[in-house]
TrEMBL record:
It comes from Galendromus occidentalis. GO terms for molecular function: sphingosine N-acyltransferase activity. This is Ceramide synthase 6. The chain crosses the membrane at residues 189-207, 214-233, 272-290, 310-336. Keywords: Membrane, Transmembrane, Transmembrane helix. The keyword Ribonucleoprotein does not apply. It is a multi-pass membrane protein. Pathway: Sphingolipid metabolism; Lipid metabolism; sphingolipid metabolism.
């Protein structure tokens, strides 16, 4: 069988109408007509183009806006790589890449003999070289400033997009006449921008500042991408837009709190953290389970016929709620820390030694 035929057979198997659509509905039933524009699978390619555009927009914003802002407030970037001489540096660099941030005493002794240096010189070089790998406070500020800018912008766009939509106020409208819902251009771009952003985050996360919840965030990005893709494919866009706007809401004060914390504005950081905590509780622990999950798990059962993708969609929503609970534990730790008069720290960051804004030995 030719490759084209195999791919065609796989596509037919994967996009089985009995799995992705309600009983009695076929893909032909949700193709665009002169009166209704449906969400189309092929439109998801737009999100890839958006992801690429957002990546370059981020690079521009960080380089020409956020980095200069941080330097204006006295923040420093990563230090230059240390040197012990042109003949010695390649050997040290090769050893560093092999052994990582922590070299054993035997390794240090062996390199010192090989290069005719003191162990103290090798240890000092190693510490300085390790600092070059760690993110500076300037790096952290630029990253948080970009995310805060995006979340604030897309949240405002989401409010504008949904302000005249009936399902924002009454979630039963997410299910009336499903799946025959008209997808307007503003909703389409709301989806593509959000999906593109999370696609870019999933890959840039490996280059960004490493956090304590790295893998939780990675799982979150995958779950979010699956949710957006699935809801778009099945024309569950109405409930999908509610998920998006609720998640963007709390992220705005969180990233703002990080920015002012990096700028050493502790009182402003503490105040914004209070705003974030309230926004988190209201959106992630309140509105999300009692509006979104309640609607999909309970209200929908009175209006639509059940199908396989419906259960997959609900499983992903519950997985997202589990992540919310895990992150709430982090937030509680920060609250306890604040009450002990230590001030607000970013518990999602690595420990303080991860910053390169330290004094050199």
């Amino acid at each position: 069988m030719a490759l084209k035929e195999k791919l065609s057979a796989f596509s037919q198997w994967f996009w089985n109408e009995d799995v992705w659509l309600p009983p009695g509905t076929t893909w032909a039933h949700i193709r665009d007509t002169s009166k209704v524009n449906y969400a189309q699978i092929e439109q998801l390619y737009d999100s890839i183009y958006v992801a690429v555009v957002l990546f370059f927009v981020r690079m521009a914003f960080e380089r020409w806006i956020f980095m200069p802002l941080g330097r204006h407030y006295g923040l420093k970037g990563r230090p230059k790589k240390p040197t012990l001489g042109l003949s010695k540096d390649p050997i040290l660099e090769k050893a560093f890449l092999k052994h990582g941030h922590k070299a054993s005493r035997e390794v240090v002794t062996g390199i010192a003999k090989q290069l005719d240096c003191s162990e103290r010189e090798i240890q000092r070089w190693w510490r300085q070289r390790t600092r070059c790998e760690r993110p500076s406070t300037l790096d952290k500020l630029a990253e948080s400033a970009w995310r805060g800018t995006f979340y604030a912008s897309v949240f405002c766009y989401g409010l504008w997009c949904l302000s005249d939509k009936p399902w924002l106020w009454d979630t039963m409208h997410c299910w009336y006449n499903f799946p025959h819902h008209n997808t307007t251009a503003d909703v389409r771009w709301y989806y593509m921008i959000e999906l593109g952003f999370y696609i870019s985050l999933m890959f840039s996360q490996f280059m960004d500042v490493k956090r304590k919840d790295f893998w939780e965030m990675f799982v979150h990005h995958i779950v979010t991408i699956l949710l957006l893709t699935l809801s778009w494919t099945c024309n569950l866009t109405r409930i999908g837009t509610l998920v998006m706007i609720l998640h963007d809401f709390a992220d705005v004060p969180l990233e703002a709190a990080k920015v002012v914390k990096y700028l050493k504005m502790q009182k402003a950081a503490d105040s914004l953290f209070v705003v974030f905590t309230l926004a988190w509780v209201v959106s992630r622990l309140g509105l999300y389970p009692y509006r979104v999950i309640y609607s999909t798990a309970y209200q929908a059962t009175f209006v639509i016929e059940m199908f396989s993708a419906y259960y997959i969609f609900n499983s992903l929503l519950l997985a997202l709620q589990l992540l919310h609970i895990i992150w709430t534990v982090f937030i509680v730790k920060v609250v306890i820390q604040a009450l002990s008069n230590q001030g607000i720290k970013d518990l999602r960051s690595e420990d303080e030694s991860s910053s390169t804004d330290e004094k050199e030995d």
